[in-house]
Amino acid sequence: MPKSGLMQNEPWLTRPVALGESRIVAAGQVRDVPGINPDAMRIMGTYGLVYMVEAKGYYRDANGVSSDLRSGDVIWIHPGLAHAYGPRNEEGWTQIYVILEGAQWERWASEGVLDPRQALTHAEPVDYWRRRMAEIFKSREAADQATALRMMGATIQLVGDLLAAEAEANKSREDDWLVESQRLLGDRQGAQQMSPQHVARQVGLSYESFRKRFADKLGVSPGQFQKQRRIEHACAAIYQGNLSLKELADELGFCDVFHFSKTFRQVVGETPSDFRQRVRGS
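-> C-alpha coordinates emitted (282 positions)
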Protein backbone atom coordinates (compact mmCIF):
# COMPACT_ATOMS: atom_id res chain seq x y z
CA MET A 1 0.00 0.00 0.00
CA PRO A 2 1.38 3.49 -0.81
CA LYS A 3 2.48 5.75 2.02
CA SER A 4 -0.70 7.85 2.28
CA GLY A 5 -2.98 4.80 2.44
CA LEU A 6 -5.77 6.82 0.80
CA MET A 7 -6.52 6.69 -2.92
CA GLN A 8 -7.08 10.09 -4.52
CA ASN A 9 -9.20 10.00 -7.67
CA GLU A 10 -9.29 13.11 -9.90
CA PRO A 11 -11.92 12.50 -12.63
CA TRP A 12 -11.28 14.40 -15.88
CA LEU A 13 -14.72 13.71 -17.37
CA THR A 14 -18.00 14.53 -15.70
CA ARG A 15 -19.89 12.17 -18.01
CA PRO A 16 -19.08 9.77 -20.90
CA VAL A 17 -18.37 11.20 -24.35
CA ALA A 18 -20.22 9.47 -27.20
CA LEU A 19 -19.60 9.85 -30.91
CA GLY A 20 -21.50 7.49 -33.16
CA GLU A 21 -21.04 3.99 -31.76
CA SER A 22 -17.83 4.81 -29.86
CA ARG A 23 -17.50 6.17 -26.34
CA ILE A 24 -14.92 7.51 -23.94
CA VAL A 25 -16.41 6.12 -20.76
CA ALA A 26 -14.12 7.76 -18.22
CA ALA A 27 -10.76 9.47 -17.83
CA GLY A 28 -8.80 10.86 -14.94
CA GLN A 29 -5.79 10.68 -12.69
CA VAL A 30 -5.45 8.49 -9.62
CA ARG A 31 -2.85 8.77 -6.87
CA ASP A 32 -1.85 6.11 -4.37
CA VAL A 33 -4.04 3.39 -5.84
CA PRO A 34 -4.16 0.09 -3.92
CA GLY A 35 -2.83 -2.85 -5.88
CA ILE A 36 -4.96 -5.57 -7.48
CA ASN A 37 -4.17 -8.95 -6.00
CA PRO A 38 -2.58 -11.22 -8.67
CA ASP A 39 -4.44 -14.14 -7.09
CA ALA A 40 -7.77 -12.39 -7.76
CA MET A 41 -7.24 -10.66 -11.10
CA ARG A 42 -9.65 -8.03 -12.39
CA ILE A 43 -11.68 -8.55 -15.58
CA MET A 44 -13.18 -5.55 -17.37
CA GLY A 45 -15.70 -5.37 -20.19
CA THR A 46 -14.14 -2.35 -21.86
CA TYR A 47 -10.97 -1.25 -23.62
CA GLY A 48 -8.68 1.34 -22.16
CA LEU A 49 -5.22 2.39 -21.15
CA VAL A 50 -3.51 3.17 -17.87
CA TYR A 51 -0.44 5.42 -18.07
CA MET A 52 2.10 5.28 -15.26
CA VAL A 53 3.10 8.81 -14.26
CA GLU A 54 4.87 7.73 -11.11
CA ALA A 55 5.17 4.04 -10.51
CA LYS A 56 7.31 1.20 -9.31
CA GLY A 57 5.26 -1.94 -9.20
CA TYR A 58 4.09 -5.13 -10.89
CA TYR A 59 1.83 -6.31 -13.72
CA ARG A 60 0.36 -9.79 -14.29
CA ASP A 61 -2.29 -11.09 -16.70
CA ALA A 62 -4.02 -14.28 -17.81
CA ASN A 63 -1.84 -14.50 -20.92
CA GLY A 64 1.13 -15.24 -18.69
CA VAL A 65 2.68 -11.77 -18.85
CA SER A 66 4.57 -10.92 -15.66
CA SER A 67 6.53 -7.70 -15.55
CA ASP A 68 7.80 -4.95 -13.31
CA LEU A 69 6.14 -1.56 -13.84
CA ARG A 70 7.90 1.80 -13.98
CA SER A 71 7.05 5.37 -14.83
CA GLY A 72 6.21 5.73 -18.53
CA ASP A 73 4.68 2.26 -18.86
CA VAL A 74 1.27 1.89 -20.51
CA ILE A 75 -1.12 -0.91 -19.53
CA TRP A 76 -3.60 -1.72 -22.31
CA ILE A 77 -6.94 -2.96 -21.02
CA HIS A 78 -8.84 -5.53 -23.11
CA PRO A 79 -12.35 -6.88 -22.47
CA GLY A 80 -12.22 -10.25 -20.78
CA LEU A 81 -8.44 -10.24 -20.17
CA ALA A 82 -7.86 -10.88 -16.47
CA HIS A 83 -5.07 -8.71 -15.13
CA ALA A 84 -3.58 -7.29 -11.95
CA TYR A 85 -1.21 -4.44 -11.23
CA GLY A 86 -0.16 -2.18 -8.41
CA PRO A 87 2.67 -0.68 -6.37
CA ARG A 88 5.30 -2.55 -4.46
CA ASN A 89 5.53 -1.97 -0.75
CA GLU A 90 5.36 1.73 0.24
CA GLU A 91 6.12 3.20 -3.18
CA GLY A 92 4.29 6.35 -4.33
CA TRP A 93 1.95 5.87 -7.27
CA THR A 94 0.24 8.13 -9.82
CA GLN A 95 -1.59 6.83 -12.89
CA ILE A 96 -3.81 8.22 -15.65
CA TYR A 97 -6.68 6.11 -16.96
CA VAL A 98 -8.80 6.34 -20.11
CA ILE A 99 -11.65 3.82 -20.46
CA LEU A 100 -13.05 3.17 -23.96
CA GLU A 101 -15.82 1.14 -25.56
CA GLY A 102 -17.61 0.80 -28.87
CA ALA A 103 -17.03 0.40 -32.58
CA GLN A 104 -13.74 2.31 -32.97
CA TRP A 105 -11.89 0.19 -30.43
CA GLU A 106 -13.55 -3.08 -31.45
CA ARG A 107 -12.48 -2.45 -35.04
CA TRP A 108 -8.90 -1.76 -34.00
CA ALA A 109 -8.90 -4.92 -31.90
CA SER A 110 -10.21 -7.01 -34.80
CA GLU A 111 -7.46 -5.56 -37.03
CA GLY A 112 -4.75 -6.28 -34.45
CA VAL A 113 -3.99 -2.62 -33.74
CA LEU A 114 -5.07 -3.22 -30.16
CA ASP A 115 -3.59 -6.61 -29.36
CA PRO A 116 -4.10 -8.36 -25.99
CA ARG A 117 -0.71 -10.00 -26.49
CA GLN A 118 0.82 -6.53 -26.25
CA ALA A 119 -0.60 -5.55 -22.89
CA LEU A 120 2.39 -3.40 -21.90
CA THR A 121 4.16 -0.65 -23.83
CA HIS A 122 6.32 2.31 -22.83
CA ALA A 123 6.29 6.01 -23.77
CA GLU A 124 8.47 8.86 -22.54
CA PRO A 125 9.02 11.64 -21.60
CA VAL A 126 6.42 11.18 -18.90
CA ASP A 127 5.62 14.89 -18.46
CA TYR A 128 4.89 15.27 -22.18
CA TRP A 129 2.37 12.41 -22.23
CA ARG A 130 0.79 13.48 -18.93
CA ARG A 131 0.24 17.03 -20.21
CA ARG A 132 -1.05 15.77 -23.53
CA MET A 133 -3.64 13.53 -21.88
CA ALA A 134 -4.75 16.28 -19.51
CA GLU A 135 -5.15 18.66 -22.47
CA ILE A 136 -7.53 16.27 -24.25
CA PHE A 137 -9.97 16.34 -21.35
CA LYS A 138 -9.61 19.94 -20.22
CA SER A 139 -13.24 20.61 -21.23
CA ARG A 140 -14.41 18.02 -18.66
CA GLU A 141 -17.43 17.18 -20.81
CA ALA A 142 -18.49 17.28 -24.47
CA ALA A 143 -21.34 19.75 -24.27
CA ASP A 144 -21.69 19.92 -28.05
CA GLN A 145 -20.80 17.87 -31.12
CA ALA A 146 -17.73 19.98 -31.95
CA THR A 147 -16.20 19.28 -28.53
CA ALA A 148 -17.08 15.58 -28.80
CA LEU A 149 -15.45 15.39 -32.24
CA ARG A 150 -12.26 17.05 -31.00
CA MET A 151 -12.10 14.92 -27.87
CA MET A 152 -12.69 11.64 -29.71
CA GLY A 153 -10.28 12.59 -32.49
CA ALA A 154 -7.58 13.55 -30.00
CA THR A 155 -8.10 10.29 -28.09
CA ILE A 156 -7.81 8.21 -31.26
CA GLN A 157 -4.62 10.12 -32.12
CA LEU A 158 -3.29 9.56 -28.60
CA VAL A 159 -3.83 5.79 -28.79
CA GLY A 160 -2.17 5.65 -32.22
CA ASP A 161 0.79 7.74 -31.09
CA LEU A 162 1.34 5.69 -27.94
CA LEU A 163 1.40 2.49 -30.00
CA ALA A 164 3.67 4.12 -32.60
CA ALA A 165 6.09 5.22 -29.87
CA GLU A 166 6.44 1.59 -28.81
CA ALA A 167 6.88 0.38 -32.39
CA GLU A 168 9.59 2.95 -33.00
CA ALA A 169 11.38 2.13 -29.75
CA ASN A 170 11.32 -1.58 -30.53
CA LYS A 171 12.37 -1.28 -34.15
CA SER A 172 15.21 -3.72 -34.48
CA ARG A 173 18.54 -2.42 -35.72
CA GLU A 174 18.47 -5.58 -37.80
CA ASP A 175 15.98 -3.81 -40.05
CA ASP A 176 17.92 -0.56 -40.41
CA TRP A 177 19.34 -1.91 -43.66
CA LEU A 178 15.80 -2.24 -45.03
CA VAL A 179 14.85 1.36 -44.24
CA GLU A 180 18.05 2.63 -45.84
CA SER A 181 17.57 0.33 -48.84
CA GLN A 182 14.10 1.70 -49.53
CA ARG A 183 15.41 5.24 -49.30
CA LEU A 184 18.28 4.56 -51.70
CA LEU A 185 16.15 2.62 -54.18
CA GLY A 186 13.60 5.43 -54.31
CA ASP A 187 16.08 8.31 -54.31
CA ARG A 188 16.63 10.15 -57.57
CA GLN A 189 19.27 12.53 -58.84
CA GLY A 190 17.72 13.65 -62.11
CA ALA A 191 17.50 10.65 -64.40
CA GLN A 192 20.09 8.76 -62.37
CA GLN A 193 19.04 6.11 -59.91
CA MET A 194 21.18 3.78 -57.85
CA SER A 195 21.03 0.18 -59.05
CA PRO A 196 19.87 -2.57 -56.67
CA GLN A 197 23.37 -4.05 -56.85
CA HIS A 198 24.88 -0.75 -55.75
CA VAL A 199 22.29 -0.42 -52.97
CA ALA A 200 23.24 -3.91 -51.72
CA ARG A 201 26.87 -2.81 -51.44
CA GLN A 202 25.84 0.38 -49.65
CA VAL A 203 24.04 -1.58 -46.91
CA GLY A 204 26.85 -4.13 -46.60
CA LEU A 205 25.21 -7.18 -48.13
CA SER A 206 25.93 -9.41 -51.08
CA TYR A 207 23.38 -8.89 -53.83
CA GLU A 208 21.88 -12.38 -53.55
CA SER A 209 21.48 -12.06 -49.79
CA PHE A 210 20.09 -8.55 -50.19
CA ARG A 211 17.60 -9.59 -52.88
CA LYS A 212 16.30 -12.55 -50.86
CA ARG A 213 16.00 -10.67 -47.56
CA PHE A 214 14.36 -7.68 -49.24
CA ALA A 215 11.78 -9.88 -50.98
CA ASP A 216 11.08 -11.79 -47.75
CA LYS A 217 10.37 -8.52 -45.92
CA LEU A 218 8.36 -6.62 -48.54
CA GLY A 219 7.07 -9.31 -50.91
CA VAL A 220 8.71 -7.76 -53.99
CA SER A 221 12.25 -7.80 -55.32
CA PRO A 222 14.47 -4.69 -55.06
CA GLY A 223 14.08 -4.20 -58.82
CA GLN A 224 10.29 -4.38 -58.63
CA PHE A 225 10.24 -2.01 -55.68
CA GLN A 226 12.41 0.48 -57.58
CA LYS A 227 10.20 0.20 -60.67
CA GLN A 228 7.12 0.93 -58.56
CA ARG A 229 8.82 3.98 -57.04
CA ARG A 230 9.74 5.32 -60.50
CA ILE A 231 6.15 5.00 -61.65
CA GLU A 232 4.91 6.65 -58.44
CA HIS A 233 7.17 9.59 -59.34
CA ALA A 234 5.66 9.52 -62.83
CA CYS A 235 2.10 9.57 -61.49
CA ALA A 236 2.88 12.55 -59.27
CA ALA A 237 4.58 14.38 -62.14
CA ILE A 238 1.65 13.74 -64.51
CA TYR A 239 -0.82 15.01 -61.95
CA GLN A 240 1.19 18.09 -60.92
CA GLY A 241 3.06 19.15 -64.05
CA ASN A 242 2.85 19.82 -67.77
CA LEU A 243 5.73 17.70 -69.08
CA SER A 244 5.17 15.75 -72.25
CA LEU A 245 5.43 11.97 -71.98
CA LYS A 246 8.79 12.12 -73.79
CA GLU A 247 10.12 14.74 -71.38
CA LEU A 248 8.86 12.69 -68.46
CA ALA A 249 10.42 9.48 -69.82
CA ASP A 250 13.75 11.29 -70.19
CA GLU A 251 13.53 12.81 -66.71
CA LEU A 252 12.83 9.44 -65.11
CA GLY A 253 15.63 7.68 -66.97
CA PHE A 254 13.62 5.55 -69.41
CA CYS A 255 15.27 4.86 -72.76
CA ASP A 256 12.19 5.95 -74.73
CA VAL A 257 8.47 6.67 -74.45
CA PHE A 258 7.52 3.13 -75.49
CA HIS A 259 9.51 1.60 -72.61
CA PHE A 260 8.11 4.18 -70.19
CA SER A 261 4.51 3.54 -71.30
CA LYS A 262 4.92 -0.22 -71.12
CA THR A 263 6.34 -0.07 -67.57
CA PHE A 264 3.69 2.43 -66.48
CA ARG A 265 0.90 0.15 -67.69
CA GLN A 266 2.43 -2.87 -65.95
CA VAL A 267 2.39 -1.04 -62.61
CA VAL A 268 -0.72 1.18 -62.84
CA GLY A 269 -2.90 -0.88 -65.16
CA GLU A 270 -3.38 1.86 -67.74
CA THR A 271 -1.23 3.93 -70.09
CA PRO A 272 0.23 7.29 -69.04
CA SER A 273 -2.07 9.01 -71.53
CA ASP A 274 -5.16 7.34 -70.08
CA PHE A 275 -3.98 8.15 -66.55
CA ARG A 276 -3.45 11.81 -67.47
CA GLN A 277 -6.92 11.98 -69.05
CA ARG A 278 -8.50 10.44 -65.96
CA VAL A 279 -6.78 12.58 -63.30
CA ARG A 280 -6.49 15.85 -65.22
CA GLY A 281 -9.14 15.67 -67.86
CA SER A 282 -6.69 16.70 -70.58
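Residues 8-170 form a domain with the Jelly Rolls fold (CATH 2.60.120.280).
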